[in-house]
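Work Package 3 (structural annotation) set out to generate three-dimensional models for the target panel prioritized at the project kickoff. During this period the team completed the workflow that converts sequence records into discrete structure tokens, so that structures can be stored uniformly alongside our sequence database. As a representative example, we reproduce one entry of 411 residues exactly as it appears in the project archive.
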Amino acid sequence: MIKNFLGYKLTTLQTTVNEFKNTSSYTLLKLNETIFFPTIAGQVCDLGFVVHNEQKYAILDLQLVDDEVIHKVELITDLVVGDSIVCELNIKHRNFVSANHTAAHLFYDTVIEDFPDSQGQGYFNNERTIRLDMSIKQKIDSKEVAKITKRVIDKIGKKAQKIELFTTKQIAQNEWGLSTDFNEKSLGDDVRIVRFGDISTQLCSGTHINNTSEIELFCIFSIEKKGNNIYRFYAATTKENLDKEVKLQQAEQHAELEILMNKYKTAKIKSSTVTKLLEECQLNLKEYKIILWKENLSKLKITVNDLLVEHDKKRRQQLINKYINVKFENKEDINYASINDDEISIKDAQQIADIILKNNPNSVIEFINLKDKTYLCKSNSIRSAIEIMQKKEFNVKGGGTPKVAQGKIIN
């Protein structure tokens, strides 16, 4: 337990300075009592102010050292041991952190209940989101996420009241059946049990809301695979924070998806599957089914890519069929062919030229695209492709070898 911590009940406190240390930019304080919760027990530290000689100094950080809270605050230059200090808690921040911490309890309990062989690998929450790491042998997909989410929401809806019990480690083990082994770190003999009705009972020194009804919502918005059977879940408990996270994820996907869909539209492909997936993605976002949205988005990308590959194959085959029997003109025992096509790309031209030359030895073929101002020449004869390009009646800026030359037409 934290020594002289009164923050479970109080939000303001007048106390005294036991020890302090000043640096060039901040002050470290040990107070006789405190209401400020440090960064432990899977949650971020409190925010607020200490007041000294009617001057407010912001809390910068709070750490626990030998069960005592070390307060890192803005620099106080006129401090003396024994001085009076008023602690003022940022209640709004505390409430957000506490709501997330309580939701993390419900979240963890639900995963353990749904997957009895799962094991917790740690969790952490701040005022915005919850992060929960679990070892789960089963595959976790959007269907499992939906089940977990519904069960957590059902627990929140029971409006369970918080009950705190300060007891001994032995009673917690024997009478409550609670594990006191936390990565082999000793909890000490005195422990705190936090209970919400019949839906959650855990050993915890963290801060909590008074009733589960104070949790606005619950939504898992991201899952990451962090190793062999290790899943990292991210969740939010307010619409404001959830919307922020969703917008960030949309922004991450936007650039890649926009390029892909522009190619799809340019190709003028029509697919009922793509239309349906787009509609489902929009509905998923509207209903905050974020994991399902990601799954459908992945399906959409795969489907569009496959369609584009197939479209490209058909288009290229059409070009091959169009030019495979191109007529060559024999000049000085070398076969020449020149193709003017303002729609053909350099990439397509290279592939088609290779196919044509494969069946036509001792030949030279060139592709000219006046729209894009591109030029390509390939040769399997004694005539040099780069030499032919350099002697064209129009100027071409580029380079090449005796076998292939290409560049930009710069009339």
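The mean pLDDT is 95.
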